[in-house]
Design brief:
Helix content is about 30%, strand content about 10%. The chain has about 130 residues and is of the alpha+beta class. α1 links the parallel β1 and β2. The radius of gyration is 17 Å and the shape is elongated. The mean pLDDT is about 90.
């Protein structure tokens, strides 16, 4: 993945700098969910095989593409100051966007996250 654009409707944005950072952080979490984060379980005994961050893959700086974020900045008439929480809203829809981009590039629809090379190469794994 070389670039990602996220568009959000979170009411009125009170601090654009921190909101953009929150959006980007959520997108990075979503990219990890879509492409690399997976709890691996030993089928023989049910043990988790990657119990720490040294074995559990999460996105690092080199994994993160250019991320652009935009928002509507339309005040919510039902919320104080027209604002709603930004939180980790960036994660919402990221996995689906990545899966659709992979489908558009390869013609393979993968519905089992994370989307890994083995799922793209073997027809029965994740379709």
């Amino acid at each position: 993945m070389r670039r990602f654009l996220g568009s959000f409707d979170c009411g009125r944005i009170l601090n654009p700098k921190t909101a953009a950072s929150q959006f980007r952080g959520g997108v990075i979490m979503g990219l990890g969910l879509a492409l690399m984060e997976e709890t691996q379980v030993d089928p023989r005994n049910g043990r988790i095989m990657n119990p720490s961050l040294s074995e559990y893959h999460v996105p690092v700086h080199m994994d993160v593409p250019d991320i652009d974020v935009i928002w509507t900045d339309i005040p919510d008439p039902h919320a104080p100051m027209g604002a709603r929480g930004v939180g980790e809203i960036g994660i919402t829809g990221t996995g689906a966007a990545v899966a659709n981009a992979i489908y558009n590039a390869t013609g393979r629809r993968i519905r089992d996250l994370p989307i890994t090379l083995d799922k793209l190469l073997v027809p029965s794994l994740g379709s």
